[in-house]
Amino acid sequence: MSEGELSRAEVDHVARLARLALDDAEAERYRVQMASILAQFAVLNELNLAQIPPSAGVHPLSTVMESDEPRPSLPTAAVLANAPAVEDAQFKVPPVFEE
Questions:
Q1: Rounded Cα distance, 22 and 28, in Å
Q2: Run means of pLDDT, 10 residues per run, the chain, 99 residues
Q3: Which domains, ranges and CATH numbers included, belong to the chain?
């Protein structure tokens, strides 16, 4: 297999990781599309990046965090308005662990 080509087994492996059930036509379409994407990334390997430090960026570093100031929260009714299930003014969710 040459660089840029993908086997059906590789496509099936990626689909299994992504929890996708693909039929034969879908798997072939994804194989062609993923091979094209990988070929575009292969073009990047041709660039001479020796003089560029690994953490180089075009924008200066700055914090994006807001100051942590107390402020009023939303009313409980507004928070629970779109909840699929509510019990005692709380979100009701199915159990996660078996008892």
A1: 9
A2: 75 95 95 93 88 76 81 94 94 85
A3: 8-44 (1.10.20)
Q: Which of 69, 18, 23, 19 is nearest to 8 (CA)?
A: 23
DSSP code per residue over the chain: --TT---HHHHHHHHHHTT----HHHHHHHHHHHHHHHHHHHHHTTS--TTS-TT--SS-----PPP----PPPPHHHHHTT-S-EETTEE----SS--
> What does pTM read for this prediction?
0.46
Q: What is the DSSP letter of 97?
A: S
